[in-house]
Specification:
single chain, 204 residues, alpha+beta, two-stranded antiparallel sheet, binds iron/sulfur cluster, binds FE2/S2 (inorganic) cluster
């Protein structure tokens, strides 16, 4: 695979063809915030918090670092007025869903985002899809999925699968940036509590 030279925040970076800007930045210790990215999962491009500014052939654009492939001589800025403004706005929208999420609060402080800018939404899920994709792509179980569309979109455990698979897995729990996942699990557990298979099988 051919080597690509690009510049990130003024630093010359060597990358391999096919890498994303995020991977190239991470390889030299440059931090770009992410909310829907996971190295074991296919890129999803949902949260856009990884937005960076790229300059190529004299043109400047905002792109998602977790999706955009490296190019020869690309100039990348991970912080700029436009980048910071975009991240601030995105955070304010996400904070309307999950105002108490620690990871969002930390980012809000960094970018000066106001958690009360937009009217609060009832759902605490920020639709990063980490739980759904991890369960499907890594665990191959599909025990949790999205239901409904648009602003009413929510995650939900599939009781028949969750009752068999989740109790001794729960690997998706630490991935969730909010409490939505645990809440959905507790709800599913309560609804299926009459099902003995939701609990570990007693040892012989
Ligand atoms: S429940 Fe959590 S991990 Fe799952 S999509 Fe929502 S915010 Fe992401
Ligand atoms: S981390 Fe890139 S869009 Fe979410």
């Amino acid at each position: 695979m051919s080597e690509i030279l690009l510049q990130i925040d003024g630093k010359e970076v060597k990358a391999r063809e096919g890498m994303t800007i995020l991977e190239a930045a991470q390889s030299v210790g440059i931090f770009i915030p992410t909310l829907c990215h996971h190295e074991k999962l296919e890129p999803f491009g949902a949260c856009r918090i990884c937005t960076v500014e790229v300059e190529t052939r004299g043109r400047t654009n905002l792109v998602a670092a977790c999706l955009y492939p490296v190019e020869q001589n690309l100039v990348v800025r991970t912080r700029s007025e436009k980048v910071d403004k975009t991240r601030k706005m995105l955070l304010e929208l996400l904070l309307a869903h999950a105002p108490d999420a620690g990871v969002l609060q930390d980012l809000a402080q960094e970018y000066g985002a106001d958690k009360d800018r937009f009217e609060k939404e009832a759902s605490f899920c920020i639709h990063c899809g980490l739980c759904v994709r991890y369960c499907a792509e890594v665990k191959k179980k599909n025990a949790v999925g999205f239901v409904d569309r648009g602003t009413r979109r929510e995650i939900s455990f599939i009781p028949e699968i969750a009752s068999k698979e989740c109790w001794n897995c729960k690997e998706c729990f630490p991935l969730c940036p909010t409490e939505a996942l645990q809440a959905a699990y507790v709800l599913t557990e309560a609804l299926t509590s009459s099902s003995p298979s939701f609990e570990p099988e007693p040892e012989e």
